[in-house]
Amino acid sequence: MQNGSASALRTRGERKSTPERRQEIVRAAAKTFGTKGYQKGSLIEIASQVGMTHAGVLHHFGSKEALLIAVLEYRDEEDLELLANREMPVGMDLFWHLTRTALANTQREGIVQTYAAITGESVTEDHPARSFVISRFSALRRYIEDALRIVCGPDLPEDVCTHAATSIIGVMDGIQLQWLLDKESVDLPEATRFALEAILVAAMAGKDRARPLSEV
Amino acid sequence: MQNGSASALRTRGERKSTPERRQEIVRAAAKTFGTKGYQKGSLIEIASQVGMTHAGVLHHFGSKEALLIAVLEYRDEEDLELLANREMPVGMDLFWHLTRTALANTQREGIVQTYAAITGESVTEDHPARSFVISRFSALRRYIEDALRIVCGPDLPEDVCTHAATSIIGVMDGIQLQWLLDKESVDLPEATRFALEAILVAAMAGKDRARPLSEV
DNA sequence: GTCTATATCGTGATAGAC
DNA sequence: GTCTATCACGATATAGAC
C-alpha cells in the first residue's frame, strides 16, 4: 500500500510524462490533419491545441512526417481496441463487424474525417502516408477474402473473391466520403448495409455459377 | 472561301490567342493538381509546364483558386465529350455507360488521378473545391436514382433507390482509389462490373421484396 | 521538456517595365 | 501578354537559453 518508489513519484508529478504528452500531441495532430489535411495542417496549430509551441512538438517527434506516421499507427491501434479481443473477426462475423462499424462511425465523425482526408491525400506523389495506406488496403483485402472463402465455401472462384473484397472496401470508403460531404443526403449505416448485403449475395451467386458441372 | 477578316488573321498569328493559352494552362494545372494535390501543387510548376512564369498564369486566372475552379469545369466538360450526344444516358444505358467508363479509365490514368486527388482533398475545411464536389455528387445521385427507377419500375422503394445510387457512386470511387494506389492488385474494370451488377440485382430484389402483397 | 530566436525556404499575389 | 522584381506571409527545422 505504500505509494511507491521515487521513480513512481516522478511520473506522477504535475508535469506530464513523455508517453502521455506524446499521446496528447498525436490526438491533436489527428484532429488537425483531419480538418485541414496533412499539407495544410501546421505544427503551429497542432502545438497550440496542447498548449505548446511548434518547437515543443518537434522535440517529441523530430519531424512533421514522423508525427503523421505516429497518427496513422495510433489510429490503427484505436480501431483494434474497438474489438473485444483485439483481433479481426473471422468468417461471417467480419461482415457483421463491418456493418456495426459503419453504424458506430456516425458517432465518431472525427476519426472518419481523419481517415478520409489522409487516405485521399495519399494518392499524390511521394506522400508520406502512401505506402502505409497501400499496405493497409492490401491487408484489408486479404482479411475480407479469407472471410469470403469461409462464408462462400471453397468453390468461390478466385477472381470473384478478389473483386468482392475490393468492392466491399471501396463501397465503404466511397459511402463514407459522400456522407462526410453531405450528411443529410446520405444514410451511412443503411447504405453500407445495403451494399454489403448486395455484394455478399453476388459472391454467393458467383460461387454457384462457377461450380463445375461435374459436381452438380 | 476567302480566309477572313483582320480579326481572324489576328487570332491565327504565331502568338497564342487567349482561349488557347487558357486551355493549355488548365490542362497543366489538372496534371499538377492530380500529381501533387491542390495545396502542394504550385503555380510555379504549372507555369513551367507551359513555358511561363507564375505571374503569367495569374494574369489569365487572377488567383490559384480560380484556376482550380477552371480545372473542375474543364474536367466535367471533358467527361461530357466522351458521350456521343453530350448528354447522360438514361435507364439501363447509364449502367452500361458506367461500366464502359471504368474500362476507359484504365487508359486515362491522369484524369482519374486528378479527380481522386481533388475529391479526396475536398473533405477538408474551407477547401475551394468542396461545394463543387458536393453538388457533383448530388447531381450524380439524382441521375442514377432516375435510371434505377426506370430499370426497376415504379415499385422500387425510395430508400432502396437512394442507397443503391449512393453505393454505385461510392463503389466506383472506392475501387478507383485502390486501383490508383496498387494497379497490380486491383482489376478496375472487372471489379467495377462485378459491383455494379451486384448492386443492380439487389435493387431489383429490393423492389420485389417490397411489393405489397395485394399486387402479387 | 519547453521556450525564444532565428535560419531558410517556398508560396501566392502585386506593380511596373517591355 | 509575359517578364522581372518584390512584398508579405507562413511554413519546417535548428540552436541554445532556462
Assign an overall shape of chain A: elongated
Series of secondary-structure elements of chain A, N-terminal to C-terminal: HHHHHHHHHH
Structure annotation, total helices of chain A: 10
Helix content of chain A: over 70%
User: How many distinct beta strands of chain A?
Assistant: 0
Q: Count up the domains of chain A.
A: 2
In terms of quaternary structure, the protein is homodimer
> How would a crystallographer describe the biggest sheet of chain A?
none
Outline the fold blueprint:
The structure is a homodimer of 216-residue chains.
Chain A: H1 6-11, H2 18-36, H3 43-49, H4 54-61, H5 64-81, H6 92-105, H7 109-121, H8 130-152, H9 158-181, H10 188-210
Helix pairs in contact in A: 2-3, 2-5, 2-7, 3-4, 6-8, 6-10, 7-9, 8-9, 9-10
Chain A binds a DNA duplex (18 and 18 nucleotides) through helix 4.
What does this entry look like structurally?
The structure is a homodimer of 216-residue chains. Chain A is mainly alpha-helical. Chain A has two domains: 15-81, Arc Repressor Mutant, subunit A (Orthogonal Bundle); 85-211, Tetracycline Repressor, domain 2 (Orthogonal Bundle), CATH 1.10.357. In chain A, 72% of the residues lie in helices and 0% in strands. Chain A is built from ten helices and no strands. Chain A has helices at residues 6-11, 18-36, 43-49, 54-61, 64-81, 92-105, 109-121, 130-152, 158-181, 188-210. In chain A, helix 2 (18-36) crosses helix 5. Chain A starts with 5 loop residues before the first helix and ends in a 6-residue tail after the last helix. The model of chain A is unreliable at 1-13 (pLDDT under 50).
